Amino acid sequence: xxxxxxxxxxxxxxxxxxxxxxxxxxxxxxxxxxxxxxxxxxxxxxxxxxxxxxxxxxxxxxxxxxxxxxxxxxxxxxxxxxxxxxxxxxxxxxxxxxxxxxxxxxxxxxxxxxxxxxxxxxxxxxxxxxxxxxxxxxxxxxxxxxxxxxxxxxxxxxxxxxxxxxxxxxxxxxxxxxxxxxxxxxxxxxxxxxxxxxxxxxxxxxxxxxxxxxxxxxxxxxxxxxxxxxxxxxxxxxxxxxxxxxxxxxxxxxxxxxxxxxxxxxxxxxxxxxxxxxxxxxxxxxxxxxxxxxxxxxxxxxxxxxxxxxxxxxxxxxxxxxxxxxxxxxxxxxxxxxxxxxxxxxxxxxxxxxxxxxxxxxxxxxxxx
Length: 369
Description:
A hairpin with a 2-residue loop joins strand 11 and strand 12. This protein has one domain: Metal-dependent hydrolases (TIM Barrel, Alpha-Beta Barrel). By secondary structure, the protein is an alpha/beta fold. It is globular and about 65 Å long. The protein has twelve helices and 13 strands. An eight-stranded parallel sheet has the order 2-3-4-5-6-7-8-9. A five-stranded antiparallel sheet has the order 1-10-11-12-13, with helices on one face.
């Protein structure tokens, strides 16, 4: 082999795409990996929430929120995801939580649209309501969550008004969230009929929902509902809640990860495999359309440039069947935030080390809960 041939052989074959968008994330879950297991194995979706995720969010403080968001944003950037729509909950650290998330993402160079998911599941005395009556009064925790959304939006930050899910919110809280969203000219970001336990969500949200709402999951939605749908196939499979059949709904569909990382290229591959299982005639162009729809929430992402170590990364058919496409370079907002597969704005080793230490503290709190 000549020197010229060797040089040519060592040069990667590259292609580019616009920035990827994660249409529904839970950045606070980045430190969940390795967390202590529940006291017993979850038997259903309510168990999964109360034994795992509601324990985790109750253990968060502003430090762990920041480092979880920073690690999650870093991993997003390294995977070519330049924009995130985040849904956050930390009932014992509400005030300042969205600021911590915004700061962490900004430092990495990733844009974020954040909200706090208001819920009435925590009573005013700090105890957990596993079932909330629609006619219950709004709790102090729900008020604080909406106040956090109000502060964030009033400060000119990008965001929405968050609700956890209808089955953990009173009608009063749902109505207050809808009114706050109208005040700020944004939509409501809410989990909808993720499991059969929330099947009444459509009936309760129907009179409030608007076209700018972000309806997450909709697996068991029993009626048409205004808004965009955030489809999260990997999470739905992981929680055993069923397939959402997004192509059967009239809504515009976006693709999210629901907190299981932010590798949206990989999420899109799984989304296509799950769609194909449901509809053998479906093509990768359907999922590519979902990815493009997500960019409408962040128009700037279309001008971001992700360079891949693969010659046809911009082809839906190649992307659907090619695993392990690696990101070489990411330009977001005119800045190079990743080059040669490494973050340029933050020290990856330092971020991971500090996130590990924050995770250790978080997991210790979980052990003591």
